[in-house]
Structure formats: C-alpha cells, structure tokens
Specification:
single chain; Rossmann fold; 6-stranded parallel sheet; two-stranded antiparallel sheet; globular; binds ligand PTJ
C-alpha cells in the first residue's frame, strides 16, 4: 500500500481509497467497485466529508428500524466488505442481525473470500454461500438470495446498493435502508431510509447508536421511525451540498 502521511489534508479519503484498492487485489471487491467508490468520493467532497445532522437522523432511524425488525439482515457486497467488514460484524452482533453476501458482479470465488473475511471478523449468522431463492424482477445472478436471510428479511440494510435491487427489495414489501453518498441515485430515491453518508463513517456511527439505544422500548423506537421522513432527509442532503458549496 502507498504510505500516506497522516498530516495529509485528505488522509482519511486517501486511506479509504487504498483500502478498496487492496480489496480488489485480495479478490474481495470488484474492479467496478473502484469506479463506484470514485462516484461516492465526488459526492463526499460536495457534502464536506462529514456526517451531516440529517445523515445522523437517518442513522438513528435506521438503527431503530433494525432493532424493531423480526428478521433484520445486513447485505454485504465487495465494497462494503473491503471498507467495513469489522463494523458490519459489530453492528450485526449488536443488533442480533444476520449478514448475507449478495453481489452484483457475482462469482463464487469472491463470495467465498468475503464470507471468510466476515467469519474472521466474528460474524455469527452468515448467509450467501448457498442461495436457494431468487429475488423477483431481477436477472439471475444478481437475484440470488437465501430463504432464511434476505429473502424473508423484514428489514434489510444494503450499503452501496444498485438501484434495481433496492427497488426489487422494496417491491417485496421489505423496509430497505441504504447508505449512499449520492442523494440523487435510484437507490437513494427508492429506499425506506437513505443514509447520505460515507459507509466508513456511517457504520461506526450506527454501532455506537445501537449500543446507546439498547435499553429503549419498542414504543420509543417506533416513535423514532415514525418521526423520520425520507423525502425530507433527501432534501436536507441536497441543501447541505448547496450550503457547503457556498462556503
Ligand atoms: O461487489 P459487487 O459485485 O456487489 O459490486 C458492488 C458495486 C458497488 C460495484 C455495485 O453495487 C455498483 O456498481 O454500484 P453502483 O450502482 O455504482 O452504486 C454505488 C453507489 O454507492 C453510488 O451511488 C455511489 O455514489 C455510492 N457510494 C460509493 N462509494 C461509497 C458510496 N456511498 C457511501 N460510501 C461510500 N464509500
């Protein structure tokens, strides 16, 4: 890996880039994942490379939604695994959620490598290696899912999801939470809760929130979910970008 000086003004962004490049070399992330990260970086730059107040609200609503779910599942693709495997497993274990490897550019080799990485980070309930169902409305490889996992989940966290699959999961009646720095993407526009934040900030925030919110009653959690409106969160994200550009 390139040695990045910690005093570089864009240290964290460059470190994230290095982690993803390593993920590609290790066979965890796809080459296309680098392009997706580039698009994310552009939006992160516009939003000021910080967790905004509205993203923080979305993270809180997302955690409440996952805590209220009967079968919460975190869907993991190559980018999510390369950037945030440790935090994904921490969040899953804190919420007692399952994790499912679900790839856009699916190869069995990459599924196995990602599953091994997640197991090495202590992931308990892990699916994706033996999918037995297809998500309706998607072409074969991208549609693969597991009965006990995403297929029957009532709430799914899908960091960095492609728009098609997000829409298909919503059509199945699931509550879908996406982490996407682009508030204009189809995933962002169709999800139940859109977290407009970088996955490398959003997941640690969500782990901390899940720990903080552990003692809350279902009524309190329900109120947090009720008070959240995704259209307002998306409008706030666009306002944040405009305000940041005016600075
Ligand atoms: O590993 P695979 O085969 O499942 O493929 C994963 C990728 C991400 C390549 C695939 O799902 C894909 O092509 O995704 P898209 O359609 O490019 O969408 C990715 C979205 O995530 C875009 O809207 C980006 O702005 C956003 N994004 C990229 N990096 C980050 C991000 N959002 C939050 N944090 C990031 N670090």
């Amino acid at each position: 890996m390139t040695d990045i000086p910690p005093d570089h003004p864009r240290y964290l962004s460059l470190l994230t880039r290095e982690r993803l490049a390593k993920g590609v070399r290790d066979g965890i992330a796809s080459e296309q994942g680098l392009i997706a990260q580039g698009r994310g970086e552009a939006f992160d730059y516009l939003i000021g490379e910080r967790t905004t107040a509205s993203a923080r609200e979305a993270e809180r609503a997302a955690v409440a939604m996952l805590m209220l779910a009967k079968n919460p599942v975190i869907s993991v693709n190559g980018n999510a695994a390369a950037l945030s495997a440790k935090e994904i497993c921490r969040l899953a274990n804190t919420l007692d959620a399952a994790v499912e490897v679900n790839l856009f550019h699916r190869t069995e080799e990459r599924v196995s490598k990602i599953a091994a990485l997640l197991r090495s980070e202590g992931c308990g309930k892990l699916y994706g290696e033996r999918p037995d169902r297809l998500i309706p409305g998607l072409s074969h490889e991208r549609a693969k899912a597991t009965s006990a996992g995403i297929y029957t989940a009532d709430a799914v966290l899908v960091p960095l999801e492609d728009g098609d699959r997000c829409e298909a999961l919503v059509k199945m009646g699931k509550r879908v939470i996406v982490v996407d720095l682009n508030p204009l993407s189809r995933s962002a526009q169709t999800a139940t809760v859109t977290i407009v934040d970088n996955i490398v900030r959003a997941l640690p925030n969500m782990v901390a929130l899940a720990q903080e919110m552990k003692g809350m009653s279902d009524m309190e959690l329900g109120e947090i979910v009720e008070e959240f409106h995704n259209d307002r969160a998306l409008a706030a994200a666009l306002d944040d970008i405009v305000d940041n550009l005016k600075k």
